[in-house]
């Protein structure tokens, strides 16, 4: 089976974990501090604050910016539900803006029409490792005095105009097992703001800066030294992981461009291809479900990210009356194919041959 995702863990990660176990310091200690410093250097920001996962990173970032029940946060309806959940967890209201059909990211030209007197922040999602159109978003945020909180949970190492995702405002990352780098579970918040960084450190540690002294009611969102040890080793490999993803993407782009009925991902030198997501059109001749079945039969993993837009989820009934036609359209068409670093050229050729077998190859 060619899996849709596969964690790349080697001897270095195993050795790092054993060192932590032997040290007896398993919770948040020097390994977390080391990981934070190295990640901040990588993103080219002053501060990185490790958290227990990507959702807690988003939640803590919102709280650090004093976003609460009276506020609105503009974001995308086409994302993993944690994007909106974190806003709700902070007590605020998600305000969805439809996406660009080519990038799957929030359409920046629709943002201003969604701004109200309650709007406090914009949360762009760098979906599938492709950065959102940050120049336009930054101009809008500056014009309306809005905070930018980047959902960079799928964009480790991605760049927009030479600047790392997660360095445009307050950035939030996930290190879940399927991400470009992993700690099993884990997250990171990045910022250049000293005060915001200090507040986030308290938020993730029960409102405490000094042990057993608590300034406010906070959360236990800390990362363990075990996870940080894995993350430190993974970070050293991230650039090579991303380069292999780009190479695999170029190979798939070249092959699949020969097949009618497929819309391929937008090519961009700054993206890191967390997912290689195509769209299936009627011209292909088979439904998405039929394609998934055929791929599975041939030993090729695939997945739908995401089959239902957030505003149509059962958990969000108050949004069911709204329509975001582009998000709804791509949710019916998208299919992600294996792109991770262990996918070989032979695997890519197999993916192409299986898809080509069931559709017309362009002359």
Entry summary:
By secondary structure, the protein is of the alpha/beta class. It has helices at residues 11-23, 30-43, 54-64, 82-89, 134-143, 194-203, 225-256, 288-297, 325-333, 345-357; strands at residues 47-51, 72-75, 93-96, 119-123, 147-151, 159-160, 163-164, 170-174, 187-191, 208-210, 213-214, 262-263, 276-280, 334-337. Strands 1-9-8-5-4-2-3 form a seven-stranded mixed β-sheet, sandwiched between helices.
**Topology order in helix (H) and strand (E) letters:** HHEHEHEEHEEEEEHEEHEEHHEH
The CATH class of the largest domain is: Alpha Beta
The CATH architecture of the largest domain can be given as: 3-Layer(aba) Sandwich
Alpha-beta content class: alpha/beta
Here the CATH topology of the largest domain equals Aspartate Aminotransferase, domain 2
Q: How far apart are the first and last residues' alpha carbons, in Å?
A: 30 Å
What does the radius of gyration come to?
21 Å
What does this structure look like?
By secondary structure, this protein is of the alpha/beta class. It has two domains: 11-234, Type I PLP-dependent aspartate aminotransferase-like (Major domain) (Aspartate Aminotransferase, domain 2, 3-Layer(aba) Sandwich), CATH 3.40.640; 239-357, Aspartate Aminotransferase, domain 1. The chain has ten helices and 14 strands. It has helices at 11-23, 30-43, 54-64, 82-89, 134-143, 194-203, 225-256, 288-297, 325-333, 345-357; strands at 47-51, 72-75, 93-96, 119-123, 147-151, 159-160, 163-164, 170-174, 187-191, 208-210, 213-214, 262-263, 276-280, 334-337. The chain has a seven-stranded mixed beta sheet with strand order 1-9-8-5-4-2-3, with helices on both faces. Strands 12-13-14 form a three-stranded antiparallel beta sheet. Helix 5 (134-143) links the parallel strand 4 (119-123) and strand 5. Helix 1 (11-23) runs antiparallel to helix 7 and helix 3 (54-64) crosses helix 6 (194-203).
């Amino acid at each position: 089976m060619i899996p849709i995702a596969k964690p790349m863990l080697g001897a270095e990660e195993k050795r790092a974990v054993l060192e932590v176990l032997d040290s007896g310091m398993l919770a948040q200690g020097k390994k977390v501090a080391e990981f934070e410093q190295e990640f901040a250097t990588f993103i080219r920001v002053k501060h990185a604050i490790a958290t227990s996962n990507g959702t807690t990173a988003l939640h803590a970032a919102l709280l650090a910016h004093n976003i609460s029940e009276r506020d609105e946060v503009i974001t995308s309806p086409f994302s993993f539900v944690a994007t909106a959940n974190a806003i709700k967890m902070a007590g605020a209201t998600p305000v969805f803006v439809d996406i660009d059909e080519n990038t799957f990211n929030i359409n920046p030209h629709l943002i201003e029409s969604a701004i109200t007197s309650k709007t406090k922040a914009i949360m762009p999602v760098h979906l599938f490792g492709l950065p959102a159109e940050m120049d336009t978003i930054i101009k809008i945020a500056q014009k309306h005095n809005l905070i930018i909180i980047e959902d960079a949970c799928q964009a480790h190492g991605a760049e927009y105009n030479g600047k790392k995702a997660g360095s445009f405002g307050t950035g939030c990352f996930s290190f879940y097992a399927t991400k470009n780098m992993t700690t099993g579970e884990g997250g990171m918040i990045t910022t250049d703001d000293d005060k915001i960084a200090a507040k986030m450190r308290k938020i993730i540690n029960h409102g405490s800066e000094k042990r057993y002294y608590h300034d406010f009611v906070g959360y236990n969102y800390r990362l363990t030294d075990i996870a940080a040890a894995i993350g430190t080793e993974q970070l050293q490999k991230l650039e090579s992981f991303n380069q292999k993803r780009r190479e695999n993407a170029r190979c798939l782009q070249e092959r699949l461009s020969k097949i009618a009925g497929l819309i391929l991902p937008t090519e961009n030198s700054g993206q890191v291809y967390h997912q290689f997501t195509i769209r299936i059109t009627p011209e292909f001749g088979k439904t998405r479900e039929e394609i998934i079945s055929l791929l599975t039969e041939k030993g090729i993993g695939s997945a739908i990210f995401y089959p239902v837009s957030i505003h149509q989820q059962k958990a969000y009934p108050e949004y069911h009356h709204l329509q975001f036609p582009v998000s709804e359209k791509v949710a019916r068409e998208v299919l992600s194919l294996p792109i991770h670093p262990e996918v070989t050229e032979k695997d890519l050729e197999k993916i192409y041959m299986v898809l080509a077998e069931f559709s017309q190859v362009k002359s």
